[in-house]
């Protein structure tokens, strides 16, 4: 969270990432995550319904890792945003590629 303060809000994500985040932070972090959403610091512009096929192609492509739905959605988001940057603790983002060949701009501790 300290690293995220370097980047202006709102931070964009998808519902699959929020689902994982709520699970990972548990009861201790739930209030903080809800607060970010309610204050509009985190926004969810991604629509899986309209991006389903590209997301499923990514999951197929990286089946050997395996790629989660949340990861696939984030990779797809990087393909649709003008200047993406992924803040993550998931080292797989060093392996994933956007548009098949481009490294994903990300900060991994």
Descriptors for this entry?
two-stranded parallel ribbon; 3 helices; 109 residues
What is the secondary structure topology, with strand pairs?
Elements: E1 11-12, H1 15-38, E2 42-43, H2 48-61, H3 69-80, E3 86-87, E4 97-98, E5 102-103, E6 106-107
Parallel strand pairs: 1-2, 3-6
Antiparallel strand pairs: 4-5
Helix pairs in contact: 1-3, 2-3
Describe this structure in words.
This protein is mainly alpha-helical. It has one domain. 46% of the residues lie in helices and 11% in strands. The protein is built from three helices and six strands. The strands form three sheets. The protein has a two-stranded parallel sheet with strand order 1-2. Strands 3-6 form a two-stranded parallel sheet. A two-stranded antiparallel ribbon has the order 4-5. Strand 1, helix 1 (15-38) and strand 2 form a beta-alpha-beta unit. Helix 1 packs across helix 3 (69-80) and helix 2 (48-61) crosses helix 3. The radius of gyration is 14 Å and the shape is globular. The chain starts with 10 loop residues before the first strand and ends with a strand. The mean pLDDT is 94.
């Amino acid at each position: 969270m300290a690293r995220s303060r370097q980047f202006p809000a709102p931070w964009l994500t998808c519902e699959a990432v929020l689902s994982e985040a709520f699970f990972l932070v548990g009861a201790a972090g739930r209030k903080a995550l809800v607060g970010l959403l309610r204050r509009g610091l985190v926004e969810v512009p991604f629509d899986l319904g309209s991006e389903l096929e590209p997301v499923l192609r990514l999951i197929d492509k990286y089946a050997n890792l395996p790629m989660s739905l949340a990861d696939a959605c984030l990779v797809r988001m990087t393909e649709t945003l003008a200047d993406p940057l992924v803040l993550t603790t998931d080292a797989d983002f060093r392996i994933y590629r956007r548009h098949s060949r481009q490294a994903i701009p990300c900060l991994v501790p």
